[in-house]
From TrEMBL:
Name of protein: DNA mismatch repair protein MutT
Keyword Protein biosynthesis: no
MF annotations from Gene Ontology: hydrolase activity, acting on acid anhydrides, in phosphorus-containing anhydrides; metal ion binding
Residue ranges of domain Nudix hydrolase in the record: 1-131
SUPFAM superfamilies attached to this UniProt entry: Nudix
Length: 149
């Protein structure tokens, strides 16, 4: 249905975030992810994107859903969102410069701080749903608010 994924890799109270160097969402912190390739399921695309952008192999998600919105031409669009958890045994020193931008572990409190203007637009609204390990939910972004369906 949708063409893109965004994935959040969590280690205790930190999430690996990407500050993208190119559009879309250039210059703000977001999860990793990207376009689902032809023949891939959203789950397969998410696993591939996490590995390509971070070098981390994750096996299964702990939470997933969709976030949708209306485009400027009146059509519905959206994205598949995932939460993966890794153990403290993972050693990934950050910040790291990658071909996509800068990867860095950010505390959940920092990400969700209401005065943080450096986070992608909807993340602060749907990330708490992911962190509660909701599965197969659908969120609709309308009037600058997330509505759970």
């Amino acid at each position: 249905m949708y063409k893109y994924t965004v994935c959040f890799v969590k280690n205790e109270n930190n999430i690996l975030m990407l500050n993208r160097e190119k559009s879309p969402i250039m210059g703000v912190w977001n999860g990793v992810g990207g376009k689902i390739e032809k023949g891939e399921t959203p789950d397969e695309g998410a696993l591939r994107e996490v590995f390509e952008e971070t070098g981390i192999r994750v096996e299964r998600y702990f939470s997933k859903g969709t976030v949708s919105w209306e485009t400027s031409n009146g059509e519905r669009d959206g994205i598949y969102v995932y939460l993966y958890e890794v153990t403290n045994h993972l050693k990934l020193e950050t910040p790291i410069k990658t071909r996509e931008g800068i990867l860095d572990w950010k505390s959940i409190n920092w990400i969700l701080n209401p005065i943080n203007l450096g986070i992608a637009e909807m993340v602060s609204q749907y990330l708490p749903v992911l962190l509660n390990k909701a599965d197969n939910y659908s969120l609709k972004y309308q009037d600058a608010q997330i509505h759970i369906n």
